[in-house]
Amino acid sequence: MTRVFALDPDDWPIWRELRLRALEDAPEAFASTLAEVLERDTEKHWRAAVTAPMVPFVAESDGAPAAMGRLMWREDHDAPVELISVWVAPEHRGRGVGGTLVTTAVEHLAIHHPRTRLLLAVVETNAPARALYSRCGFAVIGRNPDDDAELLMEHGAP
Predict the structure, then answer these.
(1) Which of 114, 124, 115 is CA-nearest to residue 151?
(2) Rg of the chain (C-alpha set)
(3) Which residues form the N-acetyltransferase domain (predicted)?
């Protein structure tokens, strides 16, 4: 059984555990490296990672942390919200955990900020992630102007 929930700042150890695993497992999928993150491995850093303007979500499968992702708001409140830092632990892939996590984040945004655009960037060669996002209602809208290896996807785009 999969349960998805939002973290609060006191839950930072859960986020830390998943983020370090993600950076070790899929370094090409993230802007920061494991070494960079370990240089700032403090409670203050991790609390900031799970505090506004971020809304972090964790999926648990059979009681164990299995996936993570965050909604991130920009200072310009008219700007789209971004879904970032999505990762599913290898032992939980292919079991619907990622889809449940992404769907929960999409539903959270729709409830709390209706009509707000939701974007994400995905490495073009990451076919499993692209397929997950497509199943969850995202469509490619172009290349990421900040990283030519990534595609931008928008939820609900034609």
Answers:
(1) 124
(2) 15
(3) 2-158
